[in-house]
Amino acid sequence: MPLRMRVHDREPIGLALKRFKKLLERSGIQKELRKRKYYEKPCEARRRAQLRKMSAIRKARITIKKV
Predict the structure, then answer these.
(1) What band does 64 get if pLDDT is binned at 50, 70 and 90?
(2) Domain map (residue ranges) of the chain
């Protein structure tokens, strides 16, 4: 997915760079690059997903008990 950004006439480089960084962040490219930086075994990915799921369940139970 190509990203396009126009730099306006007489726009400071710092401002254009800031807009570009926001564009990258919103598109999810940086997140994808960080994710693909190192290889992760499929079993490790499943384990991490399971841990995330259990953590969410635990947090939900705690908030229910507080109410």
Answers:
(1) confident
(2) 1-36, 38-67
